[in-house]
Amino acid sequence: MDLQQRINAFVKLGNFLSQFSSEGFEKKDHIEHNELFFDGFKHQIKLAQEHNGWFTKENVLFSLNGWSNQLTDRNINKWIEKHNFDTENLKTIAIIMAGNIPLVGFHDFLSVLISGQKVLIKQSSNDKQLLPFLAKYLEHIEPKFKGRISFTEGRIENYDAVIATGSNNTARYFEYYFKDKPSVIRKNRNSLAILTGKESDDELIALSEDIFRYYGLGCRNVSKLFVPKDYDFQKFFKAMYHWNLIIHENKYANNYDYNKAVYLMSQFEMLENGFLMIKEDESFSSPIATMFYEYYDSEETLKATLKDKSDAIQCVVSSGFLDNEIKFGQTQLPNLWDYADNVDTIAFSLTIC
């Protein structure tokens, strides 16, 4: 199977996914194998919601829409243009996936297959409905994918390399267990935003998407703010308000009530607006329904701090602060070339021999 065949298959997958958006499900005439797969995928979306209370219909469709927009011929070719695919050295790369947001492991899946390798997938129990169905669709679109995609619920065996995503604790286990294999091991990372107090209302409203999308469960969700001394949080809270209905989601509300009770009993100082608490804290990882913040005196000192702690940071949202910053509202809309932990998984896949 040559590279162009693999590209064509994923472009067709993107077209298939375009039928499932927050605007509703729209069956299109030109989509291949739609009679076999359209209704089935609607059912898988429903199952994903029933299996995991965090996977609301809105969040599942947001993820699907993002992948539909990325899986275009133009985007894929831009993504892979710097790599050399001249030779095919078929190896099996195992992927251990997280399950915090819908299809969170899809980029690894795509990277391995577009590189021409075989993939062995161990899914999280929290996110196991969508990807196997999409893999079957790929195999129908491009039969040469058959035998290159496999799933396991047990022990990972017969593989040449591994990409594993987990917590800091599981990463230590991964590093030991896979010490004899080429590997990419991902640990906990968080995203943060740097505010100056000069942000427009539109920028802060966009920031609310970075905070609340997927209930803040993703590593690209902003969980920490750096703000100047005497920062006025009223404008910030006003911009967050259009997410107020999130408190009616039971799992989110339970976390809000629990964390608020803990803070009050511990006599921690915090501000809250009925659905979001903000607390001064040096940590990067904040609980659900909570945003940590920290004051900064000097931009240069803050830049040095961020550089020193770069291994714990996934994204930095700001305006004109850093060269590699992300614009407000864009953390959950990564491009194909925006790699988790800045590790090029295509380059990794191509080096396995």
Provide structural commentary:
One of its GO terms (biological process) is bioluminescence. This is Acyl-CoA reductase. With 353 residues, the chain is an alpha/beta fold. The chain folds into two domains: 3-187, 3-Layer(aba) Sandwich (Aldehyde Dehydrogenase, Chain A, domain 1), CATH 3.40.605; 190-317, 3-Layer(aba) Sandwich (Aldehyde Dehydrogenase, Chain A, domain 2), CATH 3.40.309. It has helices at residues 3-17, 34-51, 57-70, 73-80, 106-114, 130-141, 168-177, 201-212, 233-240, 250-265, 299-308, 345-350, and strands at 20-21, 24-25, 92-96, 118-122, 149-151, 161-165, 183-186, 190-194, 222-228, 271-272, 277-280, 290-296, 313-317. The strands form three sheets. It has a six-stranded mixed sheet with strand order 10-11-12-9-8-13. It has a five-stranded parallel sheet with strand order 5-4-3-6-7, sandwiched between helices. The chain starts with a helix and ends with a helix. 34% of the residues are buried.
Q: Which labels suit this protein?
A:
353 residues; alpha/beta; Aldehyde Dehydrogenase, Chain A, domain 1; Aldehyde Dehydrogenase, Chain A, domain 2; five-stranded parallel sheet; 13 strands; CoA_reduct_LuxC; acyl-CoA dehydrogenase activity; NADP
